[in-house]
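Entry for the shared binder. Reason: the reviewer on the internal report wants the predicted structure included alongside the sequence.
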Amino acid sequence: MLATPAPGLAETRDNAVFDALLWTLSRPGLPRGLPEPGEGSIISALLDRECLVYAADPLLMPEIMRTGAEMADIDKADHVFLGAMATFDTLADIAIGSDYYPDDGATVIIRASIGSGVALRLTGPGVDGAVTIRLDGLPDGFWKVRAARLRYPMGFDLFFVDGARVVGVPRSTTVEEI
């Protein structure tokens, strides 16, 4: 008789993180819980030896290195971990893909406070009419710089992490400060 392998704790956690991330991208602006706070579980769920990664926060490096992912300059990275942002200068260098390969745009993970700060109105695919969310901890002008960089379908997808909560804002979402 053949036995079905049972998933371990790490695999179960990584699956729950991956599910939360996909859920938030398909429902922009709606927060979802993560099994553990911080970027560590996202690193474990998303990265492997085929990924190019940029990290602005050196404290994330040990976790990234455990995945076998290769460190890269920000403009070459598939996954960009910006930590807590002081300026939006790094947005100018994030990969947005190309006309032939728009899926080469980066996945960007940023620490922010969900539920306080600037009110944002999100519209676009996955949003029923409009969603209003508050995000704090982003530099002034962040959303204008993001809008200037996007040339849909080229662009980058955003995840905002606040402890054990995450919000996704895909490149297809229009964001307006209100």
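Summary line for the report: Helices lie at 9-26, 40-46, 61-67, 142-149.
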